[in-house]
Amino acid sequence: MRVALDAMGGDNAPAETVLGAILAAREYGIGVYLVGHEDKIRAELAKHDVAGLDLPIVHTDEIIEMHEHPATAVRRKKNASMTVALQLVRDGKALGAVSAGNSGAMMAASLFTLKRIPGVERPALGGIFPILKGGVSLIIDMGANTDCKPDYLPQFALMGSIYMERIFNIPSPRVGLLANGEEEGKGNQQVIEAHQLLKREAQTLGINFIGNIEGRDIPIGGADVVVCDGFVGNVVLKLSEGLGEALSGMLRTELTSSWKNKIAALMLRPSLRQIFKRIDYAEYGGVPLLGINGAAIVAHGRSNAKAIKNALRVTKQTGETGVVDAIAEGLARLNAEQESSKTK
Q1: Contacts of 69 (CB under 8 A, 6+ apart)
Q2: List of residues 6+ apart from 95 with CB closer than 8 A
Q3: Cβ neighbourhood burial of 267 (10 Å; 0-12, 13-18, 19+)
Q4: pLDDT 10s per residue in the chain (344 long)?
Q5: How far does CA 229 lie from the centroid of its chain?
Q6: Looking at the DSSP assignment, which residues form a beta bridge with residue 128?
Q7: Measured between alpha carbons, how far apart are the two ends of the chain, in Å?
Q8: Residue pair 232/178 in contact by the 8 Å Cβ criterion
């Protein structure tokens, strides 16, 4: 089975998207459908040695631009490259789809094309965060749903827990609810109600709920899955991106400010490279759109070839490890218990 790639999506497409597909095919043995304008894709392929690589082209000349309104563009452009990529998943021809294009449009196209997993109230974006002692945590939701009802959050917890268990091999991932205090009664009304739902439904859902966590707990690995609504999650994301860039800039400025610091920087170079590698978004490829009836990865708009390569790898893993089926099974158990409770 191949993975479908929106070869025209992103600020650096098609050069970096096509190169990312080549790297994934070469390093991971992944077959990749390159969806987009055939002539432009062939021009990029001609720049590289692709002998023996499985990189078929699926032609379409429609592209959803970054500035377009997501839902309107998806409805108007039926043959947009990201939509055609998702159709390959829907039709059973691809394990999953990747796009670095308009993220809102990718979410809308996924909903229209793949639909929701039965029982899912709202799909959610799960963002990968590196943590202090190595490894990563996942924050869900990262911006798909800015207004959430309390009963959405246990579903986010289930989806995130399954993803971390199956993609990052974390047994019984610790699930924390993001709040302004660790105490059970902390938070706004949404968080307080969500906490009670998570306590009550954790066993049925099969999740390891550890209670509330605070924002400071995220980078030190206080939980493997951090649950919040999309408004809060997106603020955490943007703050973290800005803080990471600021700290990196400060570090580079100080390490080049004198000849002594430059010598120290040379000595520290291997360690610094490892640190920058751990916080490089390209290492993780993209964020999964969970709750959709198929594997869909939303890559960063600035994705380079390395990010696309890793996004394709993660998409293949998501499709092969049964993440979608496991989410459906967990929600079916919850719905069955809720129906049973109503009849008692």
Answers
A1: none
A2: 1, 2, 3, 89, 295, 315, 316, 318, 319, 320
A3: exposed
A4: 899 999 999 999 899 999 999 999 999 999 999 999 999 999 999 999 999 999 999 999 999 998 889 889 999 999 999 999 999 999 999 999 999 999 889 999 999 999 999 889 999 999 888 888 778 899 998 888 888 999 999 999 999 999 999 999 999 999 999 999 888 888 889 999 999 999 998 988 899 999 999 999 998 899 999 999 999 998 988 888 788 778 878 888 888 888 888 888 788 778 777 766 666 666 777 889 999 999 999 998 888 999 999 999 999 999 999 999 999 998 888 878 777 666 66
A5: 15
A6: 138
A7: 46
A8: yes
What's the alpha-carbon Rg for the chain, to the nearest Å?
21
Rounded to 10 deg, the angle between the 305-320 and 15-28 helix axes is 50
Contacts (Cβ under 8 Å, ≥6 apart) of 283: 277, 306, 310
CA distance 200 to 154: 10
Amino acid occupying residue 274? Q
Q: Return all residues near 141 (Cβ < 8 A) that are at least 6 apart.
A: 122, 124, 125, 126, 148, 156, 228, 229, 230, 233
pTM for the whole thing?
Answer: 0.87
Nearest to 279, CA basis, from 98, 165, 128, 170: 128
Q: Which tokens go with 48?
A: 């590289």
Tell me if the bond preceding 219 is cis, omega within 30° of 0: no
Can you name the residues that pair with 125 across neighbouring β-strands?
Answer: 289
